[in-house]
Amino acid sequence: MTDLMLLVQNFISLFMESAPWLLLGLLVAGIMHELVPVSFLERHMGSSSTASISKAAVIGAPLPLCSCGVIPAAIGLRRSGASKPSTISFLVSTPETGVDSVSVSYALLGPLYAIVRPIAAIVSAIYAGLMVRWFDGDKLKQEAHSHQAKANTPKSNTSQSHTHSDHAGESCCASKTSAEKQVEPAPSEQEQTSCCASEKPVTSCCDDTTDAQAKPAKQANKLTQVLQYASGKLLEDIVVWLLVGLALAAAIKTWVPTDFLTQWGDGVVAMLVMALIGIPMYICATASTPLAVGFLAAGLSPGAVLVFLMAGPATNVSTMGMIKQEMGFKTLCLYLFSVITASIGFGYLLNYAVSAFSLESLIHMESQLHSHGPNVQVLYAVCAVLLAALMARLGLSKLNARLNHRKVSHEGCCG
Questions:
Q1: E strand or H helix that includes residue 360
Q2: Which of 95, 93, 98, 99 is nearest to 57 (CA)?
Q3: Spatial distance between the Cα atoms of 188 and 171, rounded to a whole number of angstroms
Q4: Which of 17, 61, 226, 341 is 20 to 30 A removed from 2 (C-alpha atoms)?
Q5: What is the model's pLDDT at position 110?
Q6: Is 168 a member of any domain?
Q7: Cβ neighbours of residue 277 under 8 Å, at least 6 residues apart?
Q8: What DSSP string runs through 371-383?
Q9: pLDDT given at position 262
Q10: Does residue 205 form part of some domain?
């Protein structure tokens, strides 16, 4: 019974810690889906080139989104036109580092980790994107064909665009050509046919007041669409994997002792264990930093701690489920392979650099944690209540839809 209560407490704690960042990620995804032009995403992240993959890694690195908040943001990017390799690159770099995690790393772990973490995040993200580009060939061929079709579309529609521009002169507000000036209609006809006539000021296409009044309405409509998409369809797509990931992370936090993580000391076994433990954990880059302080104090090598700092925030059960659903099982395997190999590789490089150049003085080995203030705790609690209310609303709407469907089907078969 005590373990069950501790499990529930850990779940609630993780839910509260992730709620603000998840809400932020939903908002970012809604803004990208509704306000960011598809052409912009296609230009910078739409192709599978090395430049697009690198741009995705650099764009994602400073964003303050954790492993939970990056899920809706990545789905929004993917569905708005980003290529699969660029989306994977964004998925790796964004949760591994950020402006907030860099500052926390400097305060708790020292300047060495504050420098290494963002560099490792960007390089590993580019590496993961390239792995998907090189080895997920079938899907990329389809994307290449679609991009080629898009490139050929404007050529076939050139005549249509010219025709449209020719007809643009027929607008009631367009300037008259020389031919129109030669054959001007009678004044009576002009008054009947012109949409700019003074008899219909409200429907006039030249009325500036109607445009000025329409702008606030359009802006309000856009904001409504952003909120509806973020709290509706997008949250519905990730809520199941989100709850599964939180439950698994709470179970690991409850039943996996710290001694199990620190008994391996140094070497590839320790790094592999830290990677396998960190991958399913539901933890953000900022929250993983205090754990890393404890691991360093318990005797883990700096490289093994870096493996945890990279693999832990980079992925979790929720992210893996989303990747499998949106991009396929093959992409998921390449994603996991890239995260594991990149984190272990950077772990070995960090251990070598520390021993070769005597960089121990740049690492903090003791905990310097400070608990959140009351104002921050209230903010986290409010965000958790809001997120739980949005999830409950989705659950009730789903339940009502199923009940209505059963009622209709029952009336149809018995009517």
A1: none
A2: 93
A3: 19
A4: 17
A5: 86
A6: no
A7: 252, 256, 261, 308, 312
A8: PPPHHHHHHHHHH
A9: 65
A10: no
Around 247, how many Cα atoms within 13 Å sit in the side-chain half-sphere? 7
Separation between Cα atoms, residue 248 and residue 352, nearest integer Å: 34
Q: Is 219 exposed, middle or buried, given 0-12, 13-18 or 19+ CB atoms closer than 10 A?
A: exposed
Give the span between the Cα atoms of 127 and 306, in whole angstroms. Answer: 17
Q: Which pLDDT does position 112 carry in this prediction?
A: 94
- Please identify every stretch of the chain with a pLDDT value under 70, giving residue numbers as ranges: 1, 36-42, 64, 66-67, 100, 137-220, 258, 260-262, 264-265, 286-287, 365-373, 412-415
Sequence-distant (6+) residues with CB within 8 A of 255 are 3
In a domain, 34, yes or no: yes
Measured CA to CA, the distance from residue 252 to residue 288 in angstroms comes to: 14
Residues 301 and 53: their CA atoms lie apart, in Å, by 31
- In 3D space, the residue among 130, 98, 67, 25 whose CA is nearest the CA of residue 319 turns out to be 67
Position 236 in a domain = yes
Tell me what pLDDT residue 189 has: 44
At 269, the amino acid letter reads: V
What is the model's pTM? 0.63
Measured CA to CA, the distance from residue 135 to residue 330 in angstroms comes to 9
Q: Extract the tokens encoding 91.
A: 């998925």
Cα dist. 218→37, 40, 226, 373, 374 in Å? 16, 21, 12, 40, 39
What is the total count of domains within the chain? 1
Is 80 in contact with 38 (CB distance < 8 Å)?
yes
Parent domain of 284: 2-140+222-407
Question: How far apart (Å, rounded) are the C-alpha atoms in residues 110 and 149?
Answer: 51
What is the CB neighbour count within 10 angstroms for residue 414? Answer: 6
CA–CA gap between residue 412 and residue 405 (Å, rounded): 10
Question: Given this model, what pLDDT does residue 42 score?
Answer: 61
Residue type, 398: K
Amino acid at 340: I
Q: Which residues contact 220 (CB under 8 A, 6 or more apart)?
A: none
CA atoms of 46 and 147, how far apart (whole Å): 9
